[in-house]
Amino acid sequence: MSATTQSPASNQPGAGKGTGNTPRDGRTGAPARTTELVSWKAGIGLGLLAILGTVLFGFLANTKSAGFRIAEARDPNASSAAAWITLAVALAAAAYVGYRWINQRREGAAVDRWIPATTIAAVVVLGLAALGVARVEKITVPSTALGWICSIVLLALAGYACFLTLQRRRTPGWLGGSFAVVFLVGFMIWIVAGGRDPEPSISLGGLMAGAVTLAVPLVFGSLSGVLCERAGVVNIAIEGQLLLGAFSAAVVATVTGNVYVGLISAAVAGALVSLVLAVVSIKYLVNQIIVGVVLNVLISGLTSFLFSTLLTADPEHLNKPGRLQAVDIPFLADIPIIGPILFHQSLVGYLMYVAVIVVYVGLFHTKWGLRVRAVGEHPQAADTVGINVNRTRFINVLMGGAIAGIGGSFFTLVSVDAFSKDMSGGRGYIALAAMIFGRWNPVGAFLAALLFGFADNLQSIITIIGSPVPSQFMAMLPYALTVIAVAGLVGRSRPPAADGIPYVKG
Amino acid sequence: MSEKTTPEPQAPGHNDAADPADIQVPGGTTPEAAASDVVLDTAGGQMPPSAVPAATQRRSRDRDQDSSGSVLHQIFTGNAMVSLLSVLLAIVLGGILMAVTNPKVAAASGYFFAQPGDLLTEVIRPYTALVQGSIFNWAGADLGAQLYPITETLTVATPLICAGLGVALAFRAGLFNIGAQGQIIFGALFGAYSGFAWHLPIGLHLLVVIIAGLVGGAVWGGVVGLLKARTGAHEVIVTIMLNYIANFLLLFLLTTPAFQRKGSTNPISPFLDSTALFPELLGPQFRLHAGFLAAIVATVFVWWLLNRSTIGFEFRAVGANPNAARTAGINVARSTILVMAVAGALAGLAGVAQVSGTEKYLSGGVAASIGFDAITVALLGRSTPWGTFFAGLLFGAFRAGGVAMQAQTQTPIDIVLVIQSLIVLFIAAPPLVRAIFGLNPRKKKTTTSGTAGSRTGGVKSGAAA
User: Fold this and answer.
1) What residues of B are in contact with residue A280 (Cβ under 8 Å)?
2) Hey, what CATH topology would domain A214-466 get?
3) What is the pLDDT of residues A5-60, one digit of tens each?
4) pLDDT tens figures, B224-248
5) What is the location of CATH 1.10.3470 in chain A?
6) Which of B227, B181, B167, B78 is nearest to B377 (CA)?
7) Residue of B nearest to A305 (CA)
8) A294–B425 CB contact, under 8 Å
């Protein structure tokens, strides 16, 4: 189940999704039949999407051109140096990883899991650095021509998938990945070209930076979910954890006059919600989903009530936390394009990177993580070898709550500097979706959260430039993708085996 | 605790077992269906489905109570006591919360010990307003004004009951239907469209609207069942996501010419034809409409379905133990799809009650938070049809009274949410309530004393002997 154990089957995890059906084939008893049936799903799905793409990007294309502004760095000299260095580093990294990849391929050995993803990342960074070095400020593309090109590529990819299916071969991961990328490119061009202006354009840097910012609470929330569910406790209460974190951060930061204390109190508040979840569901064995749903309602009611009675009565002394200012990381922030997107964050934003890395390494590369996953997959076995199942779950749920609480502080300490009713606005559920879409893996959840943040930000940008796509459909995207992911139409999301089942010893 | 055998130890066994259904559906039920089966597994099918099958992992003491015959019997045994104590506890906690946050109380706290009566008055005042706004307003000028609150309660309770029934029915079949919200929206969408776009004769029109609403909800619920049955996607996740999709779809449609009211810039639909509306039961000065009768009919229907029909038996069998049901020849996939469709239809009826009775037009907030309240209603009603009915009435009273309370005493209506969720939390965890009230019979294991679980315990042991 764990991501590490499925390595031999899936050589190329596409762009975080679209691995199709690779992991299953090796195990099933009747390969021919299964392959045939499973693969058709990919072929038909891609085919439908390709037709949709052709209709939208090709036939419904706009005659206008689409412009993509690229954000500039603040200090040209510093950024130029940074760009060159990044370029060199990315080039070296890409060459080294690519060399290893080809080498391993040639030897016929299984390619290490991290190599394809790393190569793609290095190449992307390389490209961005090259843009920075060349000081490109704006890319303008003719939308009709590129729309048609994208449509044809999509159709070709879908056709290839169907061809492979006919040959009873499975659809490789790169196909789904590149399909997604081409679709995204075509979609972006189509959207931008549909804008109100005669020469519509959007700021790509701004779009990405906004996406990362919007993803911050989602990432924290989904990490909370990962920690809980890997230990076998379903955490629907992410929404409540975020909300109470936001509330407590606002109040405590205002009362103490110190945002950092507010940040800590947010973590405590999140853990408090988790404590209730843990006590009621682990100790009293109440269904975890019920507790989660009820906790969300409870926290929503509680914070709204306190907001209406106390905070609105005296906002000066209770609801005026300062802000956590964005901090630049000295050299990295100067890198053109990438720097402002990734390294111009508030403390909470940087904590997000740290949390993702810590949770990932902790879960998959430490003894503790192995135990946690054992508890989530097979508590009886874990108990047999001497792991205290319920204590592990308890601790994990508390940690998850603390992490989600920190995510909640984003709302009141970074995004807006005051608490308002239900300000998490269902992001806890999107975080849940991100966790599932990311296949219960911290890095996957991080990428999924970024994607959802991107969709969120794109939605507001679409509204601003007046594009033909109703913004509601963009808002729907994360949820629709999640349904598709859990239904197994794109890859397969499978929860830990003991997820949601309380453990009773004996 | 240790002597109570729970299904958990067998869980991995189910997981590894090659289920026939898994082979039937190569699309990939394999791990997930089995896993979710395990989640929803009750006590290995040895007893009738518990009120909340998904909450199976409670003590067997609580499960025993579910098997204890008639509704009346249940009410007067442990469950009722725990429910009563839960409500009491929640109200007390809500009172404390109001006391702590009330500025007058803060001012009065100086002489709190001198005159605790003042503090008590401040806490009791909102609750008095709540009762006045939900049951009987003794300050009303005439009988109409005095009875207005209770009709308001029934009006508000109508969609809660319908949607709650949908959630409860799915619970009984072992499915966690968080998606009542989306299903209400779809029911309202279909119902409202047929209500304002088509112009049919009186009588027929309302019927068409109701059927359209039922179909709308059934479609949205059936999708969940279909995905669950065909691919093993967990229904909790799917329903949560479909709620949002339905909501955004509604918001989008309300901006299209087909749905938006002519000459209005707001995203609201035209008013429904008068022929498409539920008739008012008590005249135009009350909002109570015939939708409430529909809710009663729906309750009877669900009772009949669950307790008297073959399909309902299959639902319960699947809810109790999908593997056993499968072995017994029940088509689990079909049951799953069907139960979600029926649950969706019931929620769709709630949507119809909203657009065709209470609101009379379609707006973005048509479902308000009914879908989520419905979950708590079903939980409070322990997933029995009549339990859900009365739980719906109670929460309707809270809602209706909450509005009056907010108007009269400036206590935010959010306190109602707090009280509601506390009630459900306590009811879901009877041991917690017992522990709080010191009724926990764990200390005296076999002998039964105290109030709550004890009587059933006694009955049970008698039956066993």
Assistant:
1) 425, 428-429, 432
2) ABC transporter involved in vitamin B12 uptake, BtuC (1.10.3470)
3) 333 333 333 333 333 333 433 333 434 444 444 556 677 778 888 888 888 887 87
4) 999 888 887 888 889 988 999 999 9
5) 214-466
6) B167
7) B414
8) yes
